[in-house]
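Re: the request from the purification team.
They wanted to know what the chain is likely to look like in 3D before they choose a buffer screen. I agreed to run a prediction and write the result into the notebook, where they can find it.
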Amino acid sequence: MTQTRAAPPGASRGPARVRVRLRGAVQGVGMRPFVHRLATELGLSGFVRNGAGGVVIEAEGDRLQDFLARLDTDHPSLARIDGLQVEFLAPDGGHGFAIAGSTGGAVATRIIADAATCEACLRDLFDPGSRFFRYPFVNCTQCGPRYTITRRLPYDRPQTAMAGFALCADCARDYADPANRRFHAEPIACPACGPRLSRDITAIATALHDGQIVALKGIGGFHLLCDARNERVVAELRRRKAREAKPFAVMVADDGVLDRIATPTKAERTLAGSVARPIVLMDARTGVLAPSVAPRLRRVGAMLAYAPVHHLLFDALPPGTALVATSANPGGEPLVVENGEAATRLGGIADLIVTHDRPIAVRADDSVAQIVAGLPTLLRRARGFVPDPVPLPSDGPCTLALGGHLKATVTLTRGAEAFVSQHVGDLDTAETIRFYRETIDHLTRILGVRPEAVACDLHPDYRSSQMAEAFGRPVIRVQHHAAHIAAVAAEHGVAAPVLGLALDGHGLGDDGGAWGGELMVVDRAAWRRIGGLDTLALPGGDRAAREPWRMGVAALHALGRGAEATARFPAQKLAGPLAARLGAGRVAEATSSLGRLFDAAAALLGVRTVQDYEGQAAMELEALVDAPRVLAGGWTWRDGRLSFLPLLAALAENKADGASLFHGTLIDGLAALAVRGATQTGIRVVCLGGGCVMNRVLAEGLIAALSAQGLTPLLPRAVPANDGGLSLGQAVMARADLVGGNPIVVAGRCP
């Protein structure tokens, strides 16, 4: 937190008056009622109000030093004060302390993320003597929806999705009572005046208990719910949703039930119970959940109930119930949020659709996280974390970055902050593109800024790249893997040059090639590639990512064993002809992608030859690892690049413990590549970016191996390592380019 003060005029004895400006996450968190109570307790006069720039306080009295100190130390738990400016004024002799009306002006504050139901509201929810008894929308200043109901700032009820709900006399009294924890809680409501569910809790619980699928409208969109222990209904949900194997998340009521379905570590339990309530990957207990919940995987994504309706639902279900709770979106389209579209888009999936009449201003999926090397790491950033900004080392021009094509997000910079949007998804459908545009419009409106430039990927076929031209601003195209590394450096506040291991499935190189396993130096707007993985043929281009057997054939060809393709992949009629084409030199495209190397290994080991979802082969391969093991001589240098052909040859010969051997040798070789780069450049910080470092075995192995060599490895934590974090890297590189970067080689700068 920054703190600046102007010197007081004259002597400091006796009553004085100050104007205090608070910046940061200071609206929607109970800051004004807190300030009111504190000032009243200390006998101060004055006022507090929301403004476009944050919270403004004028306070007068003898105990201003106590007041300022406690503002910093005792503020509400959801608040984050990034700046506290104090200006001394002449006393005016006023009496009493008030909460004044909000002011307008240029927006410089921000709203906070949605917060799980607090303990005090849970007590109200189950207290027969409370007027909030069993009310599924109970909230206070310390919990409930924030970002998903906010249309614009300042954060006042008329600016939110609660604008249409007039306060009843009881809620109005609570709202106006400084002693009440709902004092100026903008989403306050009760059964007499607030939103209502379309069906009662008993009917919903009965449907779930009877093995039906329920679409339930929540905070950021609809969930599809069913009994997670009932294989018949989970398999039916897969069939109706056309989602063959991608794992489902599971929701439980509390820690006790969590222990029945999984074996969470202390860190995983803490993360799952945090106010953000993300889905957390943890080891599943064998034979408890339906096999179709997470086929062929060792871990399950589990989350705790976070909204009042969830708590009511679990209270009405048998003890120990676990529910599949997956995003309600058919066929990869965005999350359903409107009541009308729920009927049309979910009618063929859900047996029962439950709506409510509070609008959702912003769609937001559940966030997904895991613990890596003892610390939380986001895999999907959405509800509970958005719109918390990434601090930047300095001010700069406002830049909009549009991300990639898959797992798209956008980033908007304002001053010394970068705001990364919630997960949008793959830009393959008209609905997702509409959501993408909604996200850009909302983020721009709520931050009150107009971008000076637009950043996008080099790839001309990405929908995001094509849209960049439509903004009428200078377009800065940023190389995919450099953006991955820049995102990691930005998150960790590193402004100096860094080494980067960019490890993913695909990204267009500046030579037009398919990259994905690169060692780079990134310095502000500049980058250069100094090493990486040796290439394999990429038969079928993008189809190879969906059909790992193609990479298996490519690996056999590289080993001089293409004649074995038909026998090794008998279910694939094209395996033999493809090997023949490779042998005749008729497949020109090649890739350095680590993601495709994972696919090759999975195919050779018989783990996965065709993928039902992105990353399935790698995830199933990771699930087979007991302890990484290094194959001596499993990698070598080939024309200065790292080759794993010896490892692939060993996997083709012997499948026993192949997953452990693959991961261990991969870690060993990649660490050697980074050490070579550090020796060459003198740079000791290594950023690990790209979707492959979401593999926990690989990430933890690289962290340990690089640390043992005296290097400092940095892993993405606050934004995803995959393309969900790409927009952040684009934004910081483009912004640096606008203000004048420090190029290492001119050819490596953003075009």
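For the purification team: The radius of gyration is 27 Å.
Please add any questions underneath this entry.
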